[in-house]
Amino acid sequence: MSSSVVTITDAEFETEVLKANKPVLIYFWASWCGPCQLMSPLVNSAATTYSDRLKVVKIEVDPNPVAVKEYKVEGVPAFRLLQGDKLLASTEGVISKDKLLSLLDSHLN
């Protein structure tokens, strides 16, 4: 079963993230961010690998200042792992596939 990454905005944040029935990995990115382009395949891979127990969303930082401020995103790419309104994990900057998968594994198993 494949799962795709859902693109969301500030307006959809509560419904798509806070009210989701499983943990949500939020990927904060920007169109002008070179490293973000490198992270996209990794984000898609995580969405597919963990589709049974994780929802993956991406939100562009510039048009969505509310979520950026709420989750203290200081640089992109950035990841936040949430379960309801509880922040489980947080990273800033480019991370390796191994690091992302181990972060997810530590919270999802």
Automatic annotation (TrEMBL):
Organism of provenance: Brasilonema octagenarum UFV-OR1
Domain of life per record: Bacteria
Annotated family: Belongs to the thioredoxin family.
Record-annotated Thioredoxin domain positions: 1-109
Record flagged with keyword Ion transport: no
Name used for this protein in its record: Thioredoxin
UniProt KW keywords: Disulfide bond, Electron transport, Redox-active center, Transport
Stored Pfam families: Thioredoxin
InterPro entries the record matches: Thioredoxin, Thioredoxin-like_sf, Thioredoxin_CS, Thioredoxin_domain
Entry-linked PANTHER family: GEO12009P1
